[in-house]
Each structure stands twice: as structure tokens, then as C-alpha cells.
Amino acid sequence: MSDHPFVHRRRVTWADTDTAQIAYTVRILDFAMDAVEAWWEETIGLSWYAMVVERGLGGPWVHFDADISAPLTPRHSLESAVFVEKVGRSSLSFRVEGTRSDGVASFVAHLTTVFVDRQAWRPISIPDEFLEPITSYRRSVGS
Amino acid sequence: MSDHPFVHRRRVTWADTDTAQIAYTVRILDFAMDAVEAWWEETIGLSWYAMVVERGLGGPWVHFDADISAPLTPRHSLESAVFVEKVGRSSLSFRVEGTRSDGVASFVAHLTTVFVDRQAWRPISIPDEFLEPITSYRRSVGS
Amino acid sequence: MSDHPFVHRRRVTWADTDTAQIAYTVRILDFAMDAVEAWWEETIGLSWYAMVVERGLGGPWVHFDADISAPLTPRHSLESAVFVEKVGRSSLSFRVEGTRSDGVASFVAHLTTVFVDRQAWRPISIPDEFLEPITSYRRSVGS
Amino acid sequence: MSDHPFVHRRRVTWADTDTAQIAYTVRILDFAMDAVEAWWEETIGLSWYAMVVERGLGGPWVHFDADISAPLTPRHSLESAVFVEKVGRSSLSFRVEGTRSDGVASFVAHLTTVFVDRQAWRPISIPDEFLEPITSYRRSVGS
Lengths: 143, 143, 143, 143
Fold this sequence. Notes:
Structural class of chain A: alpha+beta
CATH superfamily of chain A: Hotdog Thioesterase
Largest interface: A-B, 25 and 25 residues
Low-confidence stretches of chain A: none
Number of helices of chain A: 3
Oligomer: homotetramer
Strand order of the largest sheet of chain A: 1-4-5-6-3
Number of strands of chain A: 8
Largest sheet of chain A: 5 strands, antiparallel
CATH architecture of chain A: Roll
Mean pLDDT of chain A: 95
Radius of gyration of chain A: 16 Å
């Protein structure tokens, strides 16, 4: 039994496009990060900005990858579904599945972050207040 | 016997940084693409822009990934070495090794492009005029 | 008697911020352009992308300016109101008033575009099909 | 009797372009800012990053504008000449003249920054150590 994953919707705009008249490859990573950031605010209730500025926590990204199967253009908006693939002691791995509003799958991306203390820049355990909603989300929508 | 790889140098600027006071993760992909673009112009003698606008050729990127080992900031410039890892019939895979000007390794990225006919958006063989300098580069600097 | 102007709402995200932990200055222009692009689709019923790719029309921007009175951060979203200030034979001037979701005025920007034939790259009269909804909008919300 | 202004050279890349196959309007502002940042490091001997992170000084930009006379593409690189137009008690106004490598003038931009104390976010006098090289530059190359 599973719930629906969080889906982040956004327009693909003129600013995203390049000379090939499709969204520039690098924007795909921007879109995936944007989806995880929106998921974070909804699931954890704290923006990345607040985490860093107000709480002194930080999460540098140590890995990203994507496979791209269809181009994005302003003709269609983008719907990005967010999944938590792995929960480590300090690290979290996300999968983002990007689908165009015409139903065509566009990309699958993976992003891994590591929690660090921003003073010492050393890995720390994922704080319990974050761990609980993250594992709960993972349980309910699958990984 | 091997030659030195092509190395693309660039400043890391204010515009690249985020609230964590390091280059935003997505910029790493921008830097890797920028290095491959510069390599292309030097090795093939044709800009991506000219390829698309004047020649009707295109190379959508179908895969990218990166592992990040140290943050980038404006304190150091970036030196990105470009390698050709694989040469397929239609596809090319690059590896970009990004090193800070203080000698610290920052990231290793991989990028795969596929040659297509821009009208039909179908894979085509890598044109011979490109294949020759690409395989020659690969032979001389290693993969 | 006047109607409400079109207001474009968007999040301010991590990706928008810089080392000063506010949205990077250049993003302000991005936000203003994004608001006008959204206005265009709503008012004219055609995206900039479709205008260029399908209709061969183009609108290079020949002027922009902004005065910035308060910084933007992810703490607040942005609401940008769009006004048509001037309608020339070939040119259109917009004013965008950016307000934070806490009610603080953030910026006032102006943007001027010129209609051109993309082949000849020469100014042309604003097509009637665009002129009508544009002047109608201007009449109803003021300039 | 006058010296040559500082000129910042940079490539215009694939990443800068949009569906119209010219550099996206917003990139013009990025280019102008980049030129002033490079000028700053050369003239003042301190990066914006170091000013903020190490010295607690900050310079929010309160105004920008540009008039654009010719598009930029990867066909030509960009040479941006930097001038100091006005020196106030707290504020500095720059003019950036962007010229393509084929000699065609592309844009003239103006940028105004205000020195603030980053704790109080209040205007402060331009520190003497900056004022001296700035006024000296202005005297020698004109405003």
C-alpha cells in the first residue's frame, strides 16, 4: 500500500532554453534540485536557506547524475516526482523523475547530500527531527 | 607515451556562489560543460553554436554525473582537464577532472552526447571530420 | 475605473542566492523578465518560444533598468505586477513592480522590446493581433 | 592625458544563448557585473567574496540599467571596458561598455552599489583603502 510521491510542477521558460531551442542540459539539474528543495520545505518544514542561515546546518551535494530521454521546451511544463532512495547515517540520496505535461518521461536524476556541521565541515548524523519525516515519507511512497 | 590533456581554466566568481558561500552545486555541471565546449572548439575547430546554426548538426546530452570531493569558491580558480572516455557510433563520453588552483581535486564529471540530425532528431554516425581529431586526441592523452 | 494588474508569483529559491545570502542582483532581472513572459502568455495567448519558433517573430530587448529597494531571500516569495508603460510603432515598454510576500517593495524594473522580422532583423510594426490585447490591458489597468 | 580603461575579456558560450540563438538578455547584466568584479579585484586587490566573507563589508546593488545595440553570440567574444562614473559618500556608479570582438558596440550598462555594514545593513562611508585606488583609477582613465 503506497501513497503518491510529492510532485513539483514548474513552467519551462524562455530563460531555460538554448540555441538548440530546448532547455539547456544544465537546467535539468537545476530542475531536479528545485524539486528536492520544494520537497524539503514540504516534508521537513524548513527551507535550505533557514537550515544554513538560522541553524548552522549544511548539506553539500556530493553526487549527482541524470539520464535524459526527451528534451524539455516551453511547450510543456515539468512535473518532477521526488523519491528518497537511501538514508545513511549522514547522507541522503534522492531520485527525481521528470515528466513533461504531455506525459513524456524526460529525465531521471539522482542527488546525494551529506549533512555537515558548517563550522567543522565534518559529516554529522542526520538530525532526528529530519530523520523521522524523511523515513516516514520513504515508507509511505516507496523508494 | 602520452601528451598532456586539454585543461580549461576559469575564475570562480561571485555569481557562482550560493548562501553556503561555495559554488552552487549546479554550477559544477556548468563548469564541466564549459570545459568540454572549450575543448571542442580547440580540438574540432568548430563551436557548438556553429555546428547547430550553420551545419544543422546537434548533440543533445543524454547523461551526466559528477562526484564532488571539495567545494569551489572565488578564492581559487578552476582547472578542468578533459578526457574522451568512449567513442561509440553516435555517442561520445567525456570525463572532466576539476581541480582548484590550490591543487585540491574538486570533482570528476562524466558527460555523454549523441549526434543527431536536427531535422529528424535521429542518431547519426559521428561525422568523419570530427571522428579523426577526437580519436587522435584520445590516443595521445589516454582515456 | 481600473482593473487589477497581472501579478506573477514565484518562490525565491536557494539557487537564486549568493554569498551575501540574498538573491543575486542579476536574478532581479530574471524575475522581471519571467513576470513579463508569464504576462505575455496570459494576455496574448502565445509564448515567446512559440512566437520565435513557430511564427518567425522576435523581440530583442533593447533596454532594461531596475531600482532595488529591499533584498529578496527564500524567506519570502515574490509578487511581480506587470504594467505596459508605452506602446510605440515597433516597441513596447513594461514596468514590473516586485513586492515580497511580507509586503515590502523590492524593486521597480523597466524593460523595452522591439518587434523585428527575424530574417531581416529589422523593426516591424507590432502585429495587430498583439496590439489589441496589449492596449486593452493598458487601458484597463493603467500604465 | 589619460590611461586605457580596464577591459575584461570573456567568451560568449553555448550556455549564454537562448532560443533566439543570441545571448539571453539577462546574461548582458551578468557580463557587466562580471567585468566590474574583475575590475574590483585588479584595482582594489580584494575579491567581492573576500570583502563579504572575511571583512564583513557588503555592497548591495541598488540600480542597474543597460541599452543594448547589437546581439552577442558565441561567434564573437566580449570585451567590456569599465569606468567609474560617480563616487559618492557611500555609493559608487560604474559604466560598462561592452564591445564584440568584431568591433561592434553591443551594450552600455550602468551599475550602482552602496557600501553597507553587513550587521546593521546601514550605508557607511566608502573605506579609505578602497577610495584611494578608485579615485586614482577614475582620474587616470576618465569617467
